[in-house]
Amino acid sequence: MIVLLIAVGFFGLKLVEPTATWSDAAVWTVTAFSTFGMDMFLPTTQASKWFQALFLLGSFMMTAFGLTVIIPPFLYWWEAPRKGLSSVRRSRPTPLYLLVGPVDWEKVESVYWELQRTVGHISLVVVVSETLTEIPMHLQRLGVQFVNGSLRRNETYQRAGIDWATGAFICSVSYNDPTADVQTAAIAGIIERCRQSVKTVTEVVSADNTDLFDGRHGADQSVLFDPLTLAAVVKLLAKQLAGRSAKIIVNTIDEAQRTELSRQLASA
Question: Which residues, in sequence order, are CB contacts of 38 under 8 Å at separation 6+?
């Protein structure tokens, strides 16, 4: 477009300045385009005024074309991390922790602050979801990253940085539907196939489905969903991230085990 304007400017300049060269046309075109003014360069004849009007029209069209080329990529670059459309960015080689399939952002925030209380400055936390649409700004400021995509596709976990992941907490997609455990087990298997060394902890809705999460299906640990188990899961993953062995497995929750779990959490 700039070359076209310079060419038009050259032939227009030739009409009023027969001795004009290509360099003169280039300087005149750039100056005229940047200042939107030509009166100082062209004689005030009727022909030059028509040429000036046409050249300004071309300049405005060029500006509009440039904006249509520049603005969409800029908006995508600005919005992609919030909408989970980009890949994880890791500025330094810190451990990466995946939180897969949380039902809402409140769940994400509670896990994040439990991790902060347990190990202090936590490694990079990446939320992977196919139902959540946009990460809240306050979580983004905390350094939490978001990847939106199908939980059944390897490409989603590649974008989430599975190759760097140390631990993964796989949330249940529903807390009132025991059949959700089948989907949770399938997701655990996909993650383990992507990277076998990642430590996975899965949430189980029904104690009758704990056999889905044995070693053959990939899950390293499983916990039955219960308000008390959130801290247990976080402490478990924190110890695994630190390279220490830990065994906090809750397959059933009765009153005696609830008391024992509370004692473990208090002494941990």
Answer: 32, 48, 52, 55, 56
Q: In whole angstroms, give the CA distance from residue 68 to residue 63.
A: 9
Q: Residue 60: give the domain boundaries.
A: 2-83
Q: Tell me which of 65-69, 95-99, 110-114, 134-138 is least confident.
A: 65-69
List the strands of the sheet with 221-224, edge to edge: 145-148, 124-129, 96-100, 165-170, 199-204, 221-224
The torsion angle over the Cα atoms of residues 138, 140, 144 and 145, rounded to 10 degrees, is 150
**Residue 79 pLDDT exceeds 70:** yes
Asked if residue 244 and residue 125 are part of one domain, the reply reads: yes
Query: Please, what is the average pLDDT of the chain?
Result: 72
Whether 57 and 104 map to the same domain: the answer is: no
- pTM of the prediction? 0.59
Tokens for 70?
């520049």
CA 236, CA 246: separation in Å to the nearest integer? 6
Count of domains for the chain: 2
Q: Is 219 found in the same domain as 142?
A: yes
Q: Are residues 78 and 104 in the same domain?
A: no
| Pair 157, 191: CB distance under 8 Å | yes
Determine what percent of the chain is predicted with pLDDT higher than 70. 52
Domain boundary among 19, 54, 83: 83
What are 223's strand-pairing partners?
203, 250
For the cut 90, the answer to whether the pLDDT of residue 31 exceeds it is no
**Does the structure show a pLDDT above 60 at 1?**
no
Angle, nearest 10°, between helix axes 46-83 and 2-16? 170
